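for ur thesis appendix - Kazal-type serine protease inhibitor domain-containing protein 1. copy paste whatever u need, i formatted it the way the template wanted (i think)
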Amino acid sequence: MDSHRRVSQSLFRFCHAFALTMALTVTGINGDDVGGRQGTAKAPPQCPDNGCAAFRCPVADRDVCPLGLVPDACACCPYGLCGLGETAECNAADRPCADNLECIRTEDVNGGLQYRCTCKETDPVCGSDNRTYSNACQLNEAAAELGNNGSQLWVQYKGPCQSAPVIRSASKNLAGSIGHTVVFDCEVKGYPVPSISWRFTDTFGITKWLPGDDTLIAIQTRGGPDRFTVTSWVQIMEFKPAMHTGNYTCLGTNSVDVTTASAALDVRKMV
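the 3d part is after this line
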């Protein structure tokens, strides 16, 4: 019986040691992921050796701590410590992050490691001021800057604020050479992300949607270059004045509104 108990205890110690070894292998002693990846480790609490002498404790006053008080990991300050905002240098002892942020290890431009407050939410939000904030933490900081009026700013809904399309870049009037390629471009931003369509009005005032049945015209559209932006091109592969002289109109459309921009195409004068 004793022999069976000793075997069981030895087996337990072996399994425990094996599991600990595997855990250290996966996470790393310093909290790194396998392969030394950075940016996910949280700052460990490091309370000062001299006790609480180095701490400057705030009072329970929103004017002193605009982003609010957070618990003190070292139990030195009875009301807690002032929470820090996004991108602020932080640690888990006397420089804690505000609510909804966490102190994450990052790499600076010189390759050095540092800890900075990072918002737990990454999606944009629409504020009550109809402005789009990159995340909820940015909105909270904007509200804190308003002081006593901060309660007037809140999250209306998650996602960007709806906005009418705005033409960021539009084509200018062009003079094309017969038989050569001509390109018009148009860049539109809005939310929901707009769609782009093209309309052509010839010299007789007849309007049609492009590309229509013209085999010499191609339209390309892609997202970008920025968020909530779309870009489109009309390419006339072989300019024929009788067919292609006139006005080209870009229409940016979403559920909020429609915006337009036009440019004219004429024949290049021979000198």
